[in-house]
Amino acid sequence: MKHLMFSFGLNAVRLLRLDRLLSSHTQGLGAILMLHHVRPFTAQNFVPNRLLEITPEFLDELLALVRARGFEIISMDEVPERICHPKPASPFVAITLDDGYADLVQHALPVFKKHQAAFTAYITTGFADGTAPLWWLDLEFAIQKMDFISLEMDGIKFDYNIQNDYKKTTAFKAIYWRLRNSPECFLRKVIVALAKQAGFDPLNSTRQLCLNWDGIRALAKEPLATIGAHTLTHPMLAKHEPAFAKDEIERSKAIIARETGKDILHFAYPVGDKTSAAQRDFTVAKTARFATAVTTRPGMIFAEHADHLHALPRLSINGLFQNTRDMDTLLSGVPFAFFNRGQKLNVN
Ligand SMILES: [Zn+2]
User: Fold this and answer.
1) Domain with CATH 3.20.20.370 in the chain
2) DSSP code for 76
3) CA–centroid distance, residue 7 to ligand 1 (Å)
4) Residue 133 C-beta-side C-alpha neighbours within 13 Å
C-alpha cells in the first residue's frame, strides 16, 4: 500500500510537471544517496527486503543519470565544505552504502570504477566479526523456510499459516513492524526463537553476506572508497541508554580505525529513522569527532544543514523503484519537499 502511494505520488509529481517547475527551490545543494545490496536480480516472489537491493546494471544507469543531470559525485569527506560554502550552480551527490556487504566489492565496485565515482561504505564491526545478526534477513529466511510459525509477542500467542508467498509477505510485514516498534532485546529474542524453529544459525547470513576484516582492509585501500562507521551491533540507538549508544558510536569508530589504519570521520545511524536516531545520538556522534553523520530521514541537502552535519538526510535508492524516470523525479527534490511539508530541515 505504501509502495502504491509512493508510486502514485511520483507519477503525480511528473504529470503535473512539478519536478520541472519546483526543482530550483527543492533540489537544494544536492543529495546523499543511500544503498544497501548491489547484486544481480533473483526471480522470486517472496523477497520482502527487495527494497534494500539494486542491480549492478541499475547502479550503472543511476551514475550516468546523476552526471547527465549535472550533479558532481563527491566523497563524504567533501560534503561539510560543500554545505558550509555552497556552490548552488553545481549540485552534488554523495553515494553511501550501509552495513558492509560483500556484494559491494563484487558487484558495485566495478561500476564505481567504471564511472570513477567516489563512495562511502559504513561498516558495522559485529557484521565484519560475524557476531551480530542481520535480523531483518533472518526474519525473511525463517518465513521463507517454514509453512507455519508460532510466536509469543507481548504475552499474546500468534500462529501464522504461511504456506504461500502472499501469506508469507503478510506475516513478514506484521512481525517486522511489531519488532521494529518493540524494545531491541525483545526483537533479538524473537529472531533467535524463529531461527531455532526454522533450524538455522542466525549468524549464517552475516558470515555469508558481509565483508570480513580482510575484505574491509582491501576496500579501504581503494582510492574511490571512504570507510565510515555504523556501530558495533546495528542497534536502534535511540531505544537504548545513553552509555550504550555512546559505546556503540565511539568504539566502532576506534575499532574500524585500528583495523584499516584510517581516521574514521563519517557515521551512519542504523535503521536511522526518527525512532532509531534522535537528538541525543546526533550530539554523541558530534562529540565523538565525526565530521558527518547520516540518518535515513528522507530529504535533500540545504545550506541550512551547516548547523546539523550530524543529522543529514538521505535519498534512499529503493530496489522497488529501479528506473531512471523515478530517480529523475526524486533528484528534483519535489517528493521530499512534500514529505517534509516544505521544511528544509527535519532534525528534531
Ligand atoms: Zn544498516
Assistant:
1) 2-130+206-339
2) G
3) 24
4) 21
Task: Tell me the CA–centroid distance for residue 15 and ligand 1, in Å.
Answer: 34
Residue 249 clears pLDDT 70, i.e. is over it:
yes
Residue 285 alpha carbon to ligand 1 centre in Å: 16
Whole-number average pLDDT of the chain: 92
315 CA distance to ligand 1 centroid (A)? 14
Strand partners, 31: 93
The answer to whether 36 and 318 have CB atoms below 8 angstroms apart is: no
- Please state, in angstroms and as integers, the Cα–Cα distance from residue 185 to each residue in 76, 190, 255, following that order: 33, 9, 24
DSSP run (H or E) holding 73: strand 72-74
Cβ–Cβ under 8 Å, residues 303 and 287:
no
End-to-end CA distance of the chain: 27
pLDDT digits (tens, 9 = 90+) for 208-231: 999 999 999 999 999 999 999 999
Helices (H), 130-235: 135-145, 165-180, 184-198, 204-209, 213-220
Strand 148-153, strand 156-161: pairing: antiparallel
Percent of the chain, pLDDT > 70?
Answer: 97
Distance 99 CA to ligand 1 centre (A): 5
Q: How far apart are CA 300 and CA 125, in angstroms?
A: 29
User: What spacing in Å lies between the alpha carbon of 230 and ligand 1's midpoint?
Assistant: 7
CATH numeric code, 2-130+206-339: 3.20.20.370
Q: Which residues line ion ligand 1, judged by CB < 5 Å?
A: 98-99, 270
